[in-house]
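= Protein in question =
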Amino acid sequence: MLFKETMQEVKLYQDIVNEGLRNIKFPEEPTDLYEPIQYLLSIGGKRLRPALTLLSAEMFDCEAHAALPTAMAVEIFHNFSLMHDDIMDKAPLRRGEATVHEKWGTNTAILSGDFMLIQSYQFISRNESSVLPSLLSVFNRIAAEVCMGQQFDMNFEKSNNINITDYIEMIRLKTAVLIGASLQLGAIVAKTDDTNAKLLYQCGENLGIAFQLQDDLLDVFGDSAKFGKQIGGDILENKKTFLLLKALELAEEEDKIELISWLNKKEYKPVEKISSIVNLYNKLNIQSYIKDEMKHYTDIAFSALNEIPIAEKKKEPLRRLAETLLVRNQ
């Protein structure tokens, strides 16, 4: 019942954002610049980040629609980063559909992504002048940090000298800071004090780290029908996730040799590779380590939320949403 009620609450925010996205008016020409943007925004997405912006604004008694331009900026920026990430990753699919660079070519995808970045700032600029400097300060910092996170992620693909501290910092920058900013920006629009806005950022950033760790966990141990992704995809791609890094840290000589052997093999049966590495993870009890890590960051997040001096009932929607997302599909 909790999941159903929470998702109904979130859907109200998602509907507001989706309506805003549908109402964007693009010039008629050049169509190849604007069509890819409309396409990417129309093929789905959870709209979690802009929903958090609207939710946080309402925590401080600001009507959700007043925070819609900022929520739109967050969602458009997020999709800009996805469009460019897909180019760098040479990804053929996004949300089950062809990626923009596959449909329109790399050059067009770069330009359309650039326009989305500009457009996100256009939406931010629709805010009142009294809050605009604070909004831009946060938005500029987060935009830079997301780019840093993507570069670290690409660097990790070529490096064999990555540890868990490096990995946590990478996912903090690439994923978590935007979740934190989504909450902080909504609080700024609502004109709460700086301390409250920063506490919400801390809450969101740490939840973002926990969410990404959960994605690592579900990729290996989740139900593919519920998770919506191929189970073991990270294993087949040799992605340096928390699970792999922890296994390399804990494995004794024989197990480490086997694990490294699988990482170096060029030819193998996918099912056999996934099965063998999952067996090693189970032997090393990796699930318990990643769940402990998730709890660590979730506890930090809720501690920050608890410090905000407003009525508990105003914090409850965010708390329920976080708890619901952190038990999904396990």
